[in-house]
């Protein structure tokens, strides 16, 4: 054993390196690449490559020594061709020599053939080790996305100390006003949310909102015209819509909008969830003189308090997407409360709702929103809002924008609650393909077994541990050959003679 200490040490080192590779990969399997931190920027692949290269180099030390030792065992017991010495030496020098040994001498020295196989397979240890590690990308979900959900609308705490022109603020909150104008001028509907990684998703939820509904009432509108005094030109016309809106038109090519809110100055609670009803008439020019103005379009719309349900709200790349939505009507639950500070509503169909079916609206917010909407929608084509209405290609879309903006703004009022959702990010992680480690592990264990087998065979047959000693041939006494047999003029000549000549090694005293 003393003569094999170096080989035993390197074999143990080879096994230790292989086990170290296995241990490192086992620890970091499935972990994000960000957790790998080493000095000087050494990557996981680099460390594995260093360990596998060191292990392979250490493994070749005992393998080459064992093949060289088996060379002497090969020549003991029976005469062998001298050329076999060259075959053993080439096998101990590297993979190519080991490969040629396998198909030339594999049957005459099975143990040496095993060592040659280990030598050949060692060339694949590096590529196999590199195949162990991949860095795929996976999605990571965190429950830290936030979105406002409102069952109560009450702006008083937010604006109780707000002062405008030296007096206390007593109107629609700026946030709700901004939502109305943003929808009216198609400026987008900003939503307040928290999405740390830019991609988030929320489960279905219901929140207090505003619903809109419009219909074309052109056909159902009653028109009555009167002639101008002293003439026969029909110019003064009354238009009465199905919902009872009356328009007195005295000129052509105009737009007039009128609205009525459901505010009761007596202080009694509203009778239903209606916020506003309005009618918009676009009056064209007469086709022929002495005829009444042509009615281009009459649209009637209404806004109502409702429960808005979002089935799949999400944020994609920082942009909010409401996903599929639907609204549920609200019914007033306390219709005889005098001078109430708030109004309580309940959904008509709880089965369509996600969460609490009860909703509360502050009386001041209810009054201020209704008054503000009634004021801005009582307009004509000479005012800014009227110009917007005249140029609008779709009143239903315009009202839907306003109701959507109000719904989003209500969801961010101070009495709203926070709904948690999942934020999604991607990360690279360490993925280990464990089958690829079979070869490096097998090589390490086969190398140790090969070393143990060679030591035991040498001991059993009483062969001195000569291994690859270059001094030994100089000390061998050659017998049985003529002097001219030991002389060759060239390397080729030596090789030809070695294939014809046979030798036997006998240990002396």
Automatic annotation (TrEMBL):
Record's protein name: Uncharacterized protein
Organism: Aplosporella prunicola CBS 121167
Transmembrane segments: 6-28, 111-129, 434-457
Calcium found in the keyword field: no
One Pfam family this sequence matches: DUF3176
Keyword Lipoprotein assigned: no
Protein keywords: Membrane, Transmembrane, Transmembrane helix
Coiled coil: none
